[in-house]
Specification:
The structure is a single chain. The protein has about 550 residues and is an alpha/beta fold. It has three domains: about 110 residues, 3-Layer(aba) Sandwich (Rossmann fold), CATH 3.40.50.2300; about 160 residues, Beta-Lactamase (2-Layer Sandwich); about 190 residues, Hypothetical protein af1432. Helices cover about 50% and strands about 10% of the residues. The chain is built from 17 helices and eleven strands. The chain has a six-stranded mixed beta sheet with strand order 2-3-1-4-5-6, sandwiched between helices. A hairpin with a 2-residue loop joins strand 9 and strand 10. The protein is elongated. The protein binds fe (ii) ion. The site of fe (ii) ion has 5 residues, from loops.
């Protein structure tokens, strides 16, 4: 294969072409141009005419081939050729035209600029070629002076650059648009994952849109940075890192000092000395920033894309914050209601807190994910919410209840379910409130559900609720020891309780004991106990 690549100085002697076994990659910041002609003189003249050719501050890097076959080999080895000047008659009468077809149709490259340059227009009439082949220009060699060639190449490179910028803008916009719905649908209880994904998206966007300017450069493959949010003390707190050394707090300090300026000017992307600071602004408030290093040459299009992305990201962050605030307010309202119901019964709100903790531990022991276990914990807090609808005279009656009074007590699961049915977000809490007095053998209330008919969260809460009531002091009874209460739970496996839940619950206690060296085995008090037949907590 006879291939030469400039820009190396000198013109090959007429009729001879220096050979190069394999084309080397173009230097960074250059425009690769492929010249295909079987006439060595034409190649030499072209080299001379284009030797100082520059466009947009970047030199042209020439690759030469003397046949369509050689041209294709170079094409496959040199990334992103901007322009090919193609002769028609080479190894065959239509070799150049076939090369054009291959590049456009088989290789599906519609960005490279293709100019037919023929010395035998009779073999390829201009009108026919223009109409039939997807080329960008047609030139007769006899008319193409050095000066016209220079102009033609510059014009083709401009067209290539504009096309690439359009392509990249479209690609970037697609990335932003594709990322947007995902940001809004992100689980609210995993904010750090959200921040990392948001940062990852913007890095990918930068890598995708910025590399064009420096195709052979590795600069953009080494983008580092972080996403930081503004905390209550008005300082930046890093929430996601990208290959960032977390010990570099000086940068955070510097960026924090920049924030008032951004707040005043409502500035968008700030680019300086290879770094980018992208403020995340919502309603003129700064929620945080994305800071990236090793980025240069950001064009106006890229700047716009990054700013659009930052707006989306800030919007999603605000959405996340509002959603979390709303969910927290909802949870707090229900927790307060649950505590109120609990105070009405036992004069302590601590029961529900212990219940939530032990429910989570048991759910985890049963193999549920942290997320589901936490949801069960939140649901457990509301298990006795229906007691708010039970008259004090019955609920607080000291001593045994009459049959009728117990029937009234038995309404609290239904009342709780009615309260929780108001909001579909409390489906699990509703199941727990309605079914925590069901028994594994079907003798519970209110519906007499049996075995796995009882929702699993309710089966867990049933165990934890009874246990906590047994080990707690109440006005009408003293607390049992932990060991006594565990024995009672164990006795209830298969009748009152789901045996698998009991096993898991006991394992949580064993694990805790092992961890604390038996220290947890003692109860808050071991003095006395009431008749376990109908302890008040089981009502
Ligand atoms: Fe209850």
């Amino acid at each position: 294969m006879k291939i030469i690549r400039t820009p190396s100085p000198g013109v090959p002697e007429s009729g001879t072409i220096p050979t190069q076994p394999s084309p080397s990659p173009p230097p960074a910041d250059s425009w690769p141009v492929l010249v295909v002609d079987d006439d060595p003189d034409i190649l030499a003249i072209t080299r001379l005419a284009l030797k100082d050719c520059r466009f947009s501050g970047r030199p042209v890097c020439l690759y030469f081939a003397q046949s369509a076959k050689e041209a294709l080999e170079i094409y496959h080895r040199v990334p992103e050729i901007a322009l090919a000047l193609v002769d028609v008659v080479m190894e065959t009468d239509d070799a150049g035209l076939r090369l054009v077809q291959t590049i456009r149709n088989d290789l599906n490259n519609h960005t490279i600029r293709l100019i037919i340059r023929t010395g035998q227009p009779g073999h390829a009439p201009e009108r026919m070629v223009i109409d039939t082949y997807d080329i960008d220009d047609y030139k007769d060699k006899t008319e193409l002076t050095a000066s016209k060639l220079y102009t033609t190449v510059r014009s083709a490179l401009k067209s290539f650059r504009d096309l690439k910028m359009l392509q990249q803008s479209r690609h970037g916009l697609e990335m932003v648009l594709r990322a947007a719905p995902g940001m809004y649908l992100h689980p609210v209880d995993q904010p750090d994952k959200f921040f990392l994904e948001a940062l990852g998206q913007i890095i990918r966007l930068c890598e995708s849109t910025c590399t064009f300017l420096e195709p052979a450069s590795t600069k953009h493959r080494n983008i580092i940075g972080f996403l930081a949010i503004l905390n209550n003390r008005e300082t930046l707190e890093i929430r996601a890192r990208w290959k960032w050394d977390e010990s570099d707090n000086a940068k955070l300090q510097m960026l924090t000092e920049e924030l008032p300026k951004i707040k005043t000017t409502q500035a968008g992307l700030v680019l300086a000395e290879g770094h980018v600071m992208l403020p995340l602004l919502v309603h003129h408030n700064i929620l945080g920033i994305i800071y990236l290093e090793n980025i240069t040459n950001i064009s106006e299009n890229e700047r716009c894309l990054l700013e659009v992305y930052a707006v989306q990201c800030a919007g999603a962050m605000e959405n996340l914050r509002l959603y979390e605030a709303l969910a927290a307010a909802n949870r707090n309202a229900m927790r307060m209601l649950a505590v109120a119901a609990e105070f009405k019964d036992t004069e302590t709100g601590d029961h529900v807190k212990r219940l939530a903790r032990q429910t989570v531990e048991t759910a985890l022991e049963l193999g549920f994910s942290q997320e589901t276990a936490q949801e069960m914990g939140r649901a457990s807090v509301m298990h006795d919410i229906g007691k708010i609808g039970v008259p004090d005279a019955v609920l607080l009656k000291p001593g045994p209840l009459t049959k009728d009074e117990f029937e009234i007590i038995k309404t609290h699961p239904g009342i709780g379910a009615s309260i929780l049915a108001e909001d579909s977000n409390f489906k699990m809490a509703l199941d727990v409130a309605l079914s925590h007095h069901e028994r594994w053998d079907g003798t519970g209330y209110p519906m007499g559900l049996k075995g796995e008919e009882i929702p699993l969260p309710a089966r867990i809460v049933a165990v934890v609720d009874v246990f906590d009531a047994l080990v707690s002091d109440r006005p009408y009874k003293k607390a049992w020891s932990v060991m006594e209460a565990l024995e009672e739970i164990k006795r209830g496996a298969g009748t009152h309780f789901d045996p698998q839940v009991v096993e898991a619950f006991l394992r949580t206690h064993r694990n805790r004991r092992e961890k604390r060296g038996q220290m947890e085995a003692s109860a808050p008090s071991t003095q006395g106990k009431d008749d376990p037949k109908f302890p008040r907590s089981k009502r």
